[in-house]
Structure formats: structure tokens, C-alpha cells
Amino acid sequence: MNEVNKKIGRPRSTQSHQAILQATLELLAEVGFDVMSIEAIAARARVGKTTIYRRYTCKEELVADAIENVREEVLIPNTGNFWGDIDALIENAARITLSPLGRQTVSMIISSAYSNSQFAQIYWTKYLQPRRQAFAIVLERAKARNEIKTESDPDLVFDIMSAVMLYALVFRPTIDPWEVYVRSALNLILKDAVL
């Protein structure tokens, strides 16, 4: 048999991969991160454990990828002004986060990240860092348009915005819609940064 005819292995199935991600999310919701196992995920997805280990080195990486899979691409709005961009970010976050799946996902992320530092690190790297970097672009554009002070720290602003969004999601501090509360809080927090 010549080298050209040798099979290197079966190609990775998109259907199997989606089944793995779905099984991971279902088990995460049902039993939680710590109890969930690769064996249980494989059984639920009807694949072998080796199929999972070909794609992922650990459970934490798989869970981070499963959560990322239900999220959307990083949004970098460019409305032409700072508050227009902020409003676009808030609207996008509301659309993703306020759905039943979105709320469940946020709950899973917080619970899993709190109980497992390896998951928290992987999620930070795969999900939060790209969004922080995208938000930095929004802030740099606003600085270039002389809308905010040049010393404004994009990472700190992103962290504050994320904290306000999570707080409002969990506690519903006012009767105002979530988006209105988040916008009002950010307006107050950023009033000294905006020119």
C-alpha cells in the first residue's frame, strides 16, 4: 500500500462535536461543574471518550468552549460616538444575557469559575480577554474623537461595565429595564471620564 492510499484516521465529525458541546451544557446545568465528568459527557453525546480527548486536553477547556459556542462573536460597534457604541454593547449584552439560556449560562460561568480556578483561567483567556481587547478599540476610537479623557483605562472601564451588568442581572435593583439601569449606572461611573 502506498503512502497516498493510507488513511490517517477518521475526519472529525461536526455532528459529534456539536453533540459533545450540547451534552456538556446539559450536564453542567443538571449536576454542576465539579460532579460532571468526561465519561458522562461522552455517554450523553454518544461518542467515545477518545473523541473528546482528541479535541480537548481537560474538562475545563471543554466547558469553556461549550459556553463560548452559545455566545456570539465579539462585537466592536462603531456608531460614530462613545455613548452610541456603549448603547450598542448594552443592547447586544441584553439580547444574549437576558434570555433563559443566557441567564443559565451566566449562572454556570460564575459557579464554575468560583469553584475551579483552572476553568476561570481558561474562560478568562478564551472569552473575556478578546472582549476586553475589543472594548479597548471602542475606547481608543472615543479618545481619538476627543469624547473621553485619554487617561481612561479601557480594562478598568470594561470591568466596571461587566460588574454593573452582572449585578443588575442578579439583583434587579430597580423597576427600570435592565438596559436602562446599566446605562444610568455607567453614565454616573463614567461622568468624569467623558468630555
Question: Could you characterize the architecture of this molecule?
Answer:
- This protein folds into two domains: 10-69, Homeodomain-like (Arc Repressor Mutant, subunit A, Orthogonal Bundle); 72-189, Tetracycline Repressor, domain 2, CATH 1.10.357.10.
- It has helices spanning 14-31, 38-45, 49-55, 59-70, 82-97, 100-115, 117-144, 154-171, 178-189.
- The chain is mainly alpha-helical and 195 residues long.
- It has nine helices and no strands.
CATH architecture of the largest domain: Orthogonal Bundle
CATH topology of the largest domain: Tetracycline Repressor, domain 2
CATH homologous superfamily annotation of the largest domain: Tetracycline Repressor, domain 2
- What's the overall average pLDDT, rounded? 85
Largest sheet: none
Q: Poorly predicted ranges (pLDDT <50, ≥5 residues)?
A: 1-11
Morphology call: elongated
Beta-strand percentage? under 5%
Number of domains: 2
